[in-house]
Design goal:
Layout (H helix, E strand, L loop, with lengths): L5 E6 L3 H11 L5 E7 L2 H10 L4 E5 L7 H11 L4 E6 L4 H10 L3 E4 L4 H12 L4 E2 L1 H20 L1 H8 L3 H10 L5 H8 L3 H15 L4 H11 L2
Helix pairs in contact: 2-3, 3-4, 8-10, 9-10
Length: about 220
């Protein structure tokens, strides 16, 4: 960001939305829309040639979707901050975007003033989310806290595992077979079977499926 000027790229496969959003934010609070493109592949090309301060990127697009653009930016152009923009309230997309490094997640129902404010905040290094996104994240945090309390004994048992058993535990909950675990940890399959049995015994479960389910609910 140079001298208060915020260079913005808008990416959306809906041409009407491209024009609408550009009109909503251009020349407001130092924002300058320097380019608009209609798919992820074009976005990557544009960003490679002309990096911007902030990219407002639609989640669902042909060729390369918004998450693909986001991952490219995070790995290749970390100075560019990405706000994901979507018409659909899909929790999985929110989770994927924030996990991949998005600096914001907004639905297309956002009004012009809030959108301008969000772009300015992200350019300044803040993270922004709309009301729906905040609600989803809050509910997830509450759910995680409830699960942690409910599974506190299981969590304590896992944390008591020896390093060798913990390594096996981590691969079992990823649904690795004994053969895959043996290969990954450079162990014999007989040793792996013994370790898996010890993990079951120590954590109080009877099967791989139960271990995977309890581990997921406990936040592992």
């Amino acid at each position: 960001m140079n001298s208060g000027r915020i260079r913005l790229l808008i990416v959306d496969d809906d041409q009407v939305m491209l024009v609408k959003v550009a009109e909503m934010v251009d020349k407001r609070n130092g924002i300058e829309v320097v380019a608009t493109v209609s798919n992820g592949a074009e976005a990557i090309k544009e960003l490679t040639l002309n990096p911007v301060d902030v990219a407002l990127v639609d989640v669902d697009m042909p060729e390369v979707d918004g998450i693909g653009v986001l991952k490219f930016v995070v790995s290749q152009l970390p100075q560019v901050k990405v706000i994901m923009f979507t018409a659909f309230q899909i929790e999985r997309n929110l989770q994927r975007a924030m996990a991949a490094g998005a600096r914001g997640f907004l639905t297309k129902t956002v009004n012009s003033d809030d959108l301008v404010a969000a772009i300015v905040k992200v350019a300044a290094g803040q993270i922004v989310m709309g009301e729906w996104s905040i609600g989803v994240m809050t509910n997830q945090l509450i759910k995680d806290e409830i699960n942690r309390a409910e599974y506190s004994d299981f969590i304590a048992r896992v944390n008591e595992l020896t390093p060798s058993l913990r390594d096996v535990f981590e691969l079992v909950i990823l649904a690795y077979s004994n053969r895959q675990i043996a290969s990954s940890l450079h162990l014999g399959e007989d040793s792996v079977r013994q370790y898996v049995t010890q993990v079951f015994r120590h954590t109080g479960v009877r099967s791989r499926g139960e271990l995977i389910l309890r581990a997921k609910n406990a936040g592992f």
